[in-house]
Amino acid sequence: MKYNCVIVDDEPMAGNFLQHYCERLDNFEVAGVFENAESALDLLKKKVIEVLFLDVEMPGISGFQLLDQLPYMPKVVLTTSKTDYAYSAFQYNVTDYLKKPITFNRFQEACSKIAATLHKEAKQVPTTITKTEDIYIKADGKFIRLTYDDILYIESMGDYVKYFTTTKAYVTHSTLKAAEEKVNANNFIKVHRCYIVNLKKIKDIQDNSLVIEGKVIPISKSLKGDVMAKIGI
Amino acid sequence: MSIEQVLFNERLDCEALMEMYEGDYEHAGVVFGQFIKNAPVQMQGIAASFQQDLVEEFRAKVHKLKPVFTFVGLTSLSRQAAQLEDQCKTSGTLKILQSEYETFKNDFDNNLPLIQEIFEKLNNEV
Question: Rounded mean pLDDT of A133-149?
């Protein structure tokens, strides 16, 4: 399996080094190299990536400020020439901390650690803590409790699932099928191969779509009968 | 000529260079080329901050260039940069770092032709 990674370092030579190192590994694919956090954020908000090699001290948005703005938490490897950030690194639950100059051996060691963690996580089926009124999802490096009422809808994104709430979206490494098993069938229904919706949050239904909080969600032809039956139309 | 022969110079940290490039002369060529292109410009920025006595700006620029020296085997310059960076943290002015800064700047100026020479060898002889 190949893991998508993004490199953020305002020093081009340092970014080039990391890109070259990634290219020497079979299982890491560079989705982008950025010289500032702002540009990286544009991509990171559109595309879910697994690994982020991140410099800390950069003009404008720092590495830690970038992490604060991410809607999900990839595996993060801090790349810095300072050791002062160890405590913050711990707080942000970063996977590894590489001090510059980074040798290929040390880089490879960090990547092996990440690959092993990602492989292990991919095999784990998210655990349902309770099937009463809430669920726990693993996102942003911790278990987050969401009540059914918090969840507007759930969207599949390949190997990930995104839980949309009124305030925030949480990305977790899972499948839509696993998400469907976690939520109560009385409250939620699968309306499309990529969407599960909270029945209480539907504002209106048109021919082949429904609307929740302004978001138009498609309804599959094959699932439309189930949806209509469920809401009693 | 092998990459080891090209990179070997008593003024450079050859052990670090060998570990970093592991015989990959193409990558070494790219990095040495980038250093020649970028480092003098960055040193000019450092000089400007020093002249204006902008301590934090000077520290940030030195910090950024610090690991870059090691990419071309100038580990001693990287150490000097680390010392300057540390001294900035406790100093309200750069004036007291005049002597250290000048040594740093002169060492850079003196080593740049060597890096240029190695870059040319990497492109022409390896």
Answer: 83
